[in-house]
Amino acid sequence: GVLDIIFIATSWWFLSSEQRIPSSLEVGYRMVTGQFRRFTYRELKDATGNFKEELGRGGSGVVYRGVLDKGKVVAVKKLTNVAGGDEEFWAEMTLIGRINHFNLVRIWGFCSEGKHKLLVYEYVENESLDRHLFDTDRTTLPWRERYRIALGTARGLAYLHHECLEWVVHCDVKPENILLTREFDAKIADFGLAKLSKRDGAAGDSMQLSHMRGTTGYMAPEWALNVPINAKVDVYSYGVVLLEMVMGCRVCDQTTAGGERLEMSQIAQALRQVVATGNVVPLVDGRLQGQFNPRQALEMVRISLSCMEDRSNRPTMDDVAKALTACDDEDEHPAYR
After folding, report:
1. Is 172 in the active site?
2. Phi (first) and psi of residue 98, to 5 degrees
């Protein structure tokens, strides 16, 4: 019995200290046990029926509906213009796979086979914010849901900027990248596709990107100035989206009485007047027919204006989330009209 115990103890010590499992296998094991896995291209081709049902498309690729072998419905995104080789993509996906927050779309796995680079996301059934906000053929998105989405999006971005292990700048915050659940909870999609930077400092630290990223109408002015980019580009974009939730239309489509497109400086000046007077009613989406919370609407306009200021004067997303939370009266009787 003593010899058996000595043998077992010696074997365990030898295996744990001298024959350690390679770190790459350890990462792989954690990914599998954490429901994050690497798929083959054949698996995803079969799951999507040869990429038959398209859910949407954008600058980073096309999204298809898929069903995995256990019946789980997923969204499969075919990425375009992905730089780097297999190992680099694997390393980046390992980082992205660790990111988990209620207001972020969950990533289940990925595929990297030569030119084929794909991501497998959770399926969010209620489409994206733009379709509910700008599609005039749909039922008007109620105020309570708008505020809920604004708050959820702010919390998701605050997590990316301040709380996750590797701080992430989204670089393309817009209504198309805010997906909605059946209960109208916000789920931010496409995060981590720009550049993941190891958290050597705060989210205000800058980083260099090889080219401009984002969507016209939502891009911060510093993109055109060839200066290092930081998390404040997301704050600017969020400010535009927040204003669109109040107005119910695209900010970039606003025109003067003569039909000329308004510059952002002109829009900012109009917002300053609204904040100064407190008269937010003319700015709010008319389709709501007055059914909104004036205190929340004015706070959203104030926050939107601060988000679109010069970079050094913009708040952090953590500040924004706290301000919206302080004005959240979901459990109270709404102060409509």
Report:
1. yes
2. -85, -15
